[in-house]
Amino acid sequence: MIKLSFLNLFRRKTRSFLALLGVIIGVASIIVLVSIVDGLFLQFNDVINQYKGLNVMEKDAVDQPFSILDEGFANGLERVSGVNVAIPEIWYVPEKIDGKANEFSFSTTSVYGLDIKKQNAARQAGWIVDIDEGKTLAGNDTGFVLIGKKIAKDYHKFVGAKIEVNGKKFVVKGIFKGESDLIENIIVMNLPDAKQLSNIPAGKVNSFTLDLDDPSKSEQIRQLIEFKYPNQVKVYSAATYTKTFDETLGQFRLLVFFVAGISAVVAGIGIVNTILMSIRDRIKEIGTLKAVGWTSGDIVKMVLFESVLIGIIGGIIGIVFGFLIDVVLEAVFGLGFAVTLPLILEAFLFALFLGLAAGIYPAYRASKLEPVIALRGG
Question: Are residues 92 and 222 in the same domain?
Fold first, then answer.
């Protein structure tokens, strides 16, 4: 029976291909969208897991580049119990790197300026933790930068080479590596150099990283600072960053399910149409099968096998196709992805359920055909 169902799909190759295409597109969409979201989440977690301090931004600022705080605010933060040092920071997205446009994407190169003297006095290493080549910056270094390994690779840089940021040239003093491309795509420089590039107002910075005496008490210190400055700042710990990202991730997943739902409807209609047309073409054959002893249940099984086979074949091809799209997107746009075994199983079960659900009505229609009427051609 399974062999017969399989052969039935090849009687009308174009029709079967169109039904398969709907399933392939639906499954590939799930693989691509979910794997990119999961890839971003893994990279984000890698970054956050190495961050042991607190980050202070202007209240209601959506991100560090949009936050403006007085640089002198560091004095008040350092008086909070448990805070070792408050490191002023500037985050800036340059327009050009080595004369080339720094196009916005998930892997956009960023400039990270900070007070190196304070960073060197901190107990925790902060964002930049592992110098792979060269040396780290000194407190009086101007005109020098550290770059991530991804930048070194993309722009063919080495220790001692010059890199141009928005028309200003810097010497690469060191190359660092990180847990993800998000870290390795940063240019680190001393605060005065970053101020010149970003044109931030005098005496202002974007944010502060707080080095703590005891990182295990970060949540208590976060609450204390927000209580002390309720209308001025928002404080982020690793836990609050993760919570915020989880909420964003949930919204992305809702979008994925919405797209999958549309794909399911389109693919399901295609399968239903394919099977119904196939039944119409085989009315006499079905009548003959019933005349020689096939039951209505046997007819239902045969038709369901056909629709399920469309789901299975479309699901397998869709998974492979989705993975290939991920590879291309990573190569062209630098989008990381994570195709996990649970994701593959979810996508395959989606295709299987789609094939089964779409075959129920055609199977019911076929099982109700009377042998005599069917032998006459309907």
Answer: yes
